[in-house]
Specification:
Helix content: 40-55%
Oligomer: single chain
Radius of gyration: 16 Å
Number of helices: 6
Largest sheet: 5 strands, parallel
Bound molecules: adenosine-5'-diphosphate
Order of helices and strands: EHEHEHEHEHH
């Protein structure tokens, strides 16, 4: 039967900080779903430079023109966050084969926990395929130019944090 309810997706990540690669995925996913929730988490394997609140703020600054994009922070299991928000899908960006193996494992795990939740993979735009938050931080820390790698609006925020 036709289900007219809104299709909500969650795009999770640490976004430390947001890059143009992330923003491209947000842009594309916002066209595929009625509502997109960017879920900001702290990956226990990484020590972030920006606090969760700061990361949320940077993403909000760059997504304010998207009416169907919302930014939230979360802890704990991704699947629980997805369920709480009544989302039907998890969005992941894939850059290279190296992303694939880990993401395949996570997608299978999440499917095991909740069979109803789909993981939707979007291929990174070719010009963003080398881009990661770590590369941006490394470049900024060493006096490199991060223009073109992150939204212009947040370049100053990132540079301020580095020095
Ligand atoms: P990182 O950027 O350090 O890999 P994140 O946790 O912030 O880590 O990434 C969040 C999501 O965004 C992941 O699904 C990741 O694969 C995706 N992603 C990261 N960088 C890019 C990029 N350049 N293009 C497309 N997707 C990306």
């Amino acid at each position: 039967m036709f289900n007219s309810s809104k299709k909500i997706a969650v795009y999770p990540g640490s976004f430390d900080p947001l890059t143009n690669g992330h923003l491209d995925i947000i842009h594309r996913a916002s066209k595929l779903f009625d509502h997109l929730i960017v879920g900001v988490l702290t990956n226990s394997a990484k020590s972030p430079i920006f606090t969760k609140e700061e990361r949320v703020e940077l993403i909000r600054k760059c997504t304010s023109e998207y009416e169907n994009v919302e930014v939230k922070m979360f802890d704990g299991l991704l699947v629980d966050f997805v369920r709480e928000n009544k989302a039907v899908a998890i969005i992941k960006g894939l850059r290279a084969v190296s992303d694939y193996e880990y993401e395949l494992q996570m997608a299978a795990l999440n499917k095991h926990i909740d069979h109803e939740i789909e993981t939707v993979f979007l291929m990174a735009d070719i010009q963003n395929s080398f881009l990661s938050s770590s590369i941006v931080k490394e470049l900024a820390k060493n006096g490199g130019n991060i223009k073109g790698l992150v939204p212009d609006k947040i370049i100053d925020d990132i540079m301020k944090k580095m020095y």
